[in-house]
Amino acid sequence: MSETTETRPVKGELLHEGKAKKVFKTDREDLLIQEFKNDATAFDGTKKGTIEGKGTVNCQVSAMMFKLLAENGIENHYVELLSENAMAILPVEIIPVEVVVRNITAGSLVRHRGFEEGKKLDPTIVEWYLKNNELHDPLINDSHILAFGYLDEDGMALLREKALKINEILLEFFAGIGIDLVDFKLEFGRRPDGSIILADEISPDTCRLWDKETGRKLDKDRFRFDLGDVEEAYQEILKRTATAN
Ligand code: UDP
Questions:
Q1: Ligand 1 neighbourhood includes 208 CB (under 6 angstroms)
Q2: What is the number of domains present in the chain?
Q3: In this predicted model, what pLDDT tens digit does every residue of 56-95 receive, in sequence order?
Q4: Nearest 5°: phi and psi at 172?
Q5: Is residue 40 part of a domain?
Q6: Run of H or E residues at 181
Q7: Domain assignment present for 244
Q8: Separation of 179 CA from ligand 1 center, angstroms?
Q9: How far is it, in rounded angstroms, from Cα 210 to Cα 54?
Q10: 86-122: per-residue pLDDT in tens?
Q11: Ligand 1 center to residue 109 CA distance, Å?
């Protein structure tokens, strides 16, 4: 959906400020602006910090991923880049179900499920989490989603199908730049016509990305676990992603 706008949208009132992004209204009904911040949080906001250059990396990487996905038939909210850390997006009503796709064991799968880190998963795991900070984004199942009316059976099947297709596309892309796509989180939204499209961001904040040769973590885990060279890891992802395009 990465068509270019005829006139660049003018930034208006702040609509929403999250932990890593701000969303603004524009002078056009049909467009919003999503601005990426350098602020970083982890562990439900209990760990806070700044990652220099993160806003730019996440905006540029997300733009490239959204373009790649659109070219491969995955409709998404990205319209165009407006600056190094801002993009025009289509307004959607975010579905409060975060979709996590896992190719390799890591993170909460290790902490809460007893898996050893770094094992290839077959089949790929798809999980639903309720998007609710106060409740710490709990893991939920199909019955919860149906009972609360977030999605119907068809909606869940559609999201699962899209998530797996996105995984195929991204796995291939990252493999091409020497990176293992370990896991990632997606958010989807509803357009006024009822259609469901991909939204939010795809970046080192929302994906685990490990160097294929060295196993080095090139994502937000460097910040979460004080692994050092955080900025450099984000820049490395931008550099490799940009060279592939
Ligand atoms: N993730 C995210 N936002 C969240 C929770 C998870 O972007 O609120 C991403 C995270 O970066 C990782 C994947 O989803 O790439 C799986 O995260 P996990 O469930 O292992 O939780 P975490 O260890 O990040 O708490």
A1: yes
A2: 2
A3: 999 999 999 999 999 999 999 999 999 999 999 999 999 9
A4: -65, -45
A5: yes
A6: strand 179-190
A7: no
A8: 18
A9: 18
A10: 999 999 999 999 999 999 999 999 999 999 999 999 9
A11: 10
